[in-house]
Every structure is written in structure tokens, then in C-alpha cells.
Design brief:
Layout: H1 19-45, H2 63-98, H3 112-145, H4 153-182
Length: about 180
């Protein structure tokens, strides 16, 4: 599937532009799509004025928690959309670069630097989207289970598990990206 080229740092990125790049970008877009669904689920579950399941009125969230939820969800969605659009653009360029069915005048030419920068930008967008999604999920937990500040044990445990697991997964993802870009 690859086309000839120098595959080096500054020229057209042809020789090493393979289906592996497209597959990696497809995976990123698919994961972003799943996370985008989570954004809308978070918005649909929580509504302002809800009473928490804690049962104590001091544990019920105020409008600031609902406002933060909305802000974090919108920012998270924006990062996932940014990441997906960059990845889709790179996929289009790679597919045009490798296509034998189009005239040379319409063939895409993408440099190694542009490809690497685009893939990195897309990955960073996903990481930031995840961070804001976690922040929004903390707000959902506070709305449903009670404010963290009132000592709701179920809310504290839920947030601890969420932050621990997602932080671990993000650390592995970032380490993998770092390794891929340095080797």
C-alpha cells in the first residue's frame, strides 16, 4: 500500500506511509467516538436541581457543579472533535498519497514532519479530551452521589477509582506515544 519516496524527515512521506498509519488513526477516531458518546451520556444523566443519593441536603450539588459539568463536557467534546478531525484529515492525505487511481495533479503530498505533527496533535487532543471528560465525570458523580466536600463515601470512592484507573491508562498511552515518536 505504500508508494515510493524518501521516507525521511523533510520530503514527501511516501515509503513508510503505510496502512499502519491509517489503522492507528482509525483507532484514534474510534476511541474518540466512544468518548464523545460518554460526553452526551454525562449530560443526559445529570440535571441541575437534582438531589443526590446521599440523602443529606448539605450534600446536594449547587448550580456551580452543574455549570462546571457543562463547561467540562463542552471542552472535552471540543478536544475529541479536534483530535478526530485532524486524524481524519491525515487519513485522507495518506489515502490520496497512496492511491494509484488518481492523477498526479490531485495526489496529496505530505511531509514526514506534517504527518508526525498531525498525529501528535491528534493524540494530545485525545489526552486533553480525556482529562476534561474525567473532570466532567467527577461533576456527574457529585450530582448523583453527593458533594465530595461533604464527605460522601460513595462519591469519594467513585472519584478515587475513576481518577486512578484513567490516570494509569493515560500514563500508558502517553508513554506509548512517546516511545513511538522517539524510536
Amino acid at each position: 500500500m505504500s508508494r515510493g519516496g524518501d521516507g525521511g524527515g523533510g520530503g514527501d512521506y511516501g515509503g513508510t506511509t503505510t496502512s499502519i498509519h491509517v489503522t492507528a488513526l482509525d483507532g484514534l477516531v474510534n476511541v474518540n467516538s466512544l468518548f464523545t458518546v460518554a460526553v452526551f451520556v454525562g449530560l443526559s444523566i445529570a440535571s441541575p436541581g437534582q438531589r443526590s443519593l446521599e440523602g443529606r441536603s448539605e450534600c446536594d450539588p449547587g448550580l456551580d457543579v452543574a455549570r462546571n459539568l457543562l463547561i467540562f463536557e463542552v471542552v472535552s467534546f471540543s478536544f475529541f472533535l479536534f483530535s478526530s478531525l485532524v486524524a481524519q484529515g491525515l487519513k485522507l492525505a495518506i489515502n490520496l498519497l497512496n492511491s494509484n487511481d488518481i492523477d498526479e495533479a490531485f495526489r496529496a503530498h505530505i511531509s514526514a514532519r506534517v504527518l508526525r505533527f498531525g498525529m501528535l496533535a491528534s493524540a494530545v487532543g485525545s489526552v486533553l479530551g480525556c482529562i476534561f471528560l474525567v473532570l466532567s465525570m467527577v461533576q456527574v458523580i457529585q450530582i448523583r452521589l453527593g458533594l465530595l466536600s461533604c464527605g460522601s463515601q460513595s462519591a469519594v470512592r467513585s472519584v478515587a477509582v475513576l481518577v486512578t484507573l484513567v490516570s494509569t491508562a493515560l500514563a500508558v498511552y502517553i508513554a506509548t506515544i512517546f516511545y513511538a515518536f522517539t524510536h
